[in-house]
Sequence to fold (152 residues):
Amino acid sequence: MIGRIAAAVYRRGLAAVEKGDIDTLLANFRADCELIFISDTALGARLSTRADLRRWFERFGRLLPHPRFEVRRLVVGGPPWNQRLAAHVIIRSTVLGEPYQNQFAQFLTMRWGKVVEDLILEDTLTWQRASRRLVEAGHHEAGAQRLGEPGA
Fold:
């Protein structure tokens, strides 16, 4: 039962990203949370405040508008005070009017229903190719520095 609740929280979070509802999404994160997106691209990040998370999700929404997520696998384990979730997810969006599809693994640590750590491992080569196309088309934010880096 507890695992089903955590899975529902996770799926609602993805649905909030799809809708661009950052406030609802951020309500699922503790104030002392950490988001790590492994990448040397504009989506790469190591963040630890809600304000930084908001900036990241706003950037994500500008770079990959109207994302759709398909959860292929979701595993939940642990007690409510130290729950772990692992997901394999397909993301679909558009980049410069053309279909974009990628996949990522996401690992979350939750305490009492709130995310304390969110680690995202995406196929960065696919995202780098899309980023390059965006930069070449004049979308300079796609070539911006990782968030959480000095000057970002």
User: Anything to note?
Assistant: The radius of gyration is 15 Å. Helices lie at 2-19, 22-26, 50-63, 124-136. The chain has a mean pLDDT of 93.
